[in-house]
Amino acid sequence: MAFNIGLLGLGTVGTGAVQLLLDKSGRHPLLQELVIRRVGVRSLNKTRAVSLPLQVLTTDLEAIVSDPEVDIVVEVLGGLEPARSLILKAINHGKHIVTANKAVIALYGDEIFTAANQARVYVLLEAAVGGGIPVIQPLKQSLGVNRIQAVTGIVNGTTNFILTAMHAADRAFNDVLADAQRLGYAEADPTADVDGLDAADKIAILASLAFGGRIKLPEVYREGIRQVSQADIAYARKLNFVIKLLAIARQEQTYPSNQLQVRVHPTLVPQSHPLASVNGVYNAILIEGEPIGQVMFFGPGAGAGATASAVVSDILNIVADLKTRAQASATNVTAHPLLTCSHQDYCRVAPMADLVTRFYARFLTQDHPGVIGKLGTCFGSHGVSLESVVQTGIQGDLAEIVVVTHDVREGDFRSSLNEISTLEAVDSIPSVLRVL
Ligand code: HSE
Question: Which single residue of 179, 184, 268, 398 has CA 20 to 30 Å from 190?
Answer without folding.
Answer: 268
